[in-house]
Amino acid sequence: MDGTQKARTEGGPASWRVEGMDCASCVAKVEGAVKRLPGVSDVAVNPMAERLTLHLEPGQTDPAAIERTVSALGYTARPLPATAPASPEPSKLVRLGRRPKPTTGPHNRRTASTRARNRLELLSQKLLASTARLVTIT
């Protein structure tokens, strides 16, 4: 049973993917139109995720009416499942690819000291070059 079917029979939260929103004005338009429907509360529109989430009271507004309302505004609305699938436990995840380099430890200390040494050497060379130019000028 998806989110809209559950909301239709029991009431509760329901979500739709709304395509075509690209600014705050679009969000306000969708939010305002859906809020006016009877039995609709807690309306939230996220334009970046293209998601409309709301709470439906049982027996008030049919989820299809929400889809029709959003479509009348010029956007495409598709129902989303009530809950996202559970993510696996971290212990059961498989790590692919190379291990990340440690942020502490002797490897990074060596790298940092090598960078500092190289930087110091470069500055010394620049100082010697500018000193040599001063000597030839005077």
Task: Give the topology, please.
Blueprint (H helix, E strand, L loop, with lengths): L2 H8 L1 E8 L4 H12 L4 E7 L4 E6 L6 H10 L3 E4 L26 H32 L1
Antiparallel strand pairs: 1-3, 1-4, 2-3
Proportion of beta-strand residues: 15-25%
Characterize the biggest β-sheet: 4 strands, antiparallel
Number of helices: 4
The amount of helix comes to: 40-55%
Low-confidence stretches: 84-94
Q: Write down the Rg.
A: 30 Å
CATH topology descriptor of the largest domain: Alpha-Beta Plaits
Domain count: the total is: 2
Helix and strand sequence: HEHEEHEH
User: What would CATH call the class of the largest domain?
Assistant: Alpha Beta
Could you give a short description of this structure?
The protein is of the alpha+beta class and 138 residues long. The protein has helices at residues 3-10, 24-35, 63-72, 106-137, and strands at residues 12-19, 40-46, 51-56, 76-79. 13% of the residues are buried.
Can you put this structure into words, describing what you see?
The chain is of the alpha+beta class and 138 residues long. The protein has two domains: 77 residues, Alpha-Beta Plaits, CATH 3.30.70; 35 residues. 45% of the residues lie in helices and 18% in strands. It contains four helices and four strands; from the N terminus they run αβαββαβα. A four-stranded antiparallel sheet has the order 2-3-1-4. Strand 2 and strand 3 form a beta hairpin. About 8% of the residues have low confidence.
